[in-house]
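$ run holo --ligand "4-fluoro-L-phenylalanine" --emit tokens
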Amino acid sequence: MGVIAATLGSAVGLGNVWRFPAEAQANGGAAFLLLYIACVIILGVPMMLVEMTLGRHGRSDVVGVFKKLEPGKPWWGVGALAILASLLITGFYMVVEGWTAEYLWNSITGALYEGTGESVAQTDAVLKARMGEYINSDFSPLIFTLVVFMINVGILIGGVQKGIERVSNILMPMFFVVLAILCCMTLSLDGAGEGLRWFLSPDFSLITWDTVVNALGQTFFSLSIGMGCIVTYASYYPDNTRLTGTAVIVAMMSLLVALMVGCVIFPSVTHFGLTDHGLAGSTLVFRTLPNVFSMMPGTTFWSILFFTLLFVAALTSTVSMVEVTVAFMQERLKVSRAKAVVLTVVPMIVLGIFSSLSFGSLSDFTIAGKTFFDLLDFIATNLLLPLGGIILCIYVGWFAPKTMLREQLTNHGRTRLLLLNAIVFIIRYVAPLLIGVIMVFTFI
Ligand code: PFF
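-- output --
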């Protein structure tokens, strides 16, 4: 259970609640959803198994496993890539985690909902103005981003991951329950059908290469694969953990959260008529959800509860991202844990500052049409994660010790696995080919 909880903690986070609806909105709704589901099943689960195999067999950090298994060969370079990806992802993810903390804080003080409640339109106008203060200004989002960094540092140095795991063991199931309650709420709203239809009935003419590339990126992002996070966590797994069962459960739960979030967000968007206001993808959830809460009896209670749960979900993800580099520094460079955490986090904070400001005074500063925040997301999610993923896949499928994959998947022959041959086939042929083709199109 601990293994599943920790891996689930890493996988389920802002990727499902904040990034998924924004991507679905930008990529045509149901068509994107369908591709995303296909990617999770065909590529996500096998890729998780690749990382789990490598981590548990090598019992080391993402560079260390290659130093152990392939001494003197350049395979460890994929570890370097993974560390770069974790740096870039943390550089924008912490900002959104900061927004979550900011919304939580302002729900507690009551500032978020102050002056709302006259009518649906007036409430939305107030909430939109608050979003401007909380996200699109310079000062307060920056402060919350820095606070969130410090909380992560405290957890990582204090080694209180065990405590976090225990807390999230209670809060994660609660998160599912609260999402289910919100689903019931929003699905009964007037006009919900229109949003739901958009989210669930696919229009295949909307599928372009961009949709495919983005669905693949979202799969890697939401399952924490392609940057050695699962390698690092699996290096701590006991020998009797069933890898396939764990990967399937984590992937399905992550998918379920994304689906439930979609069922909350899109019906609300149509019910509140939020489409007219030109909602920007990144801010979709932070504008929509407070509108939903403001309509429910016990607004403050639901708002505090939800943002607390989301914050913990985000925290268990960021701790796992930073751990990739911390484990590397501790094991390879032999520095103390505290020093490793500080050295890892400083460059992340620098990126975090620029990402946060890219919603404020740096919003006009763009490279290739993207703000700094969007650029980090694009490079890490659509380029580095699939690149790391494909190399890991090719290594485990073709170059690793012949028996490694089968031994890890069957716990050295102790458990029978019906689909073993199919999984090995996907890892050797299907996954590298599909990811390779999609990546070539990304570059084109
Ligand atoms: N999977 C996390 C989420 O969906 O929020 C984000 C993430 C965590 C990405 C860890 C990558 C990673 F290594």
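-- notes --
The CA atoms of residues 154 and 160 lie 8 Å apart.
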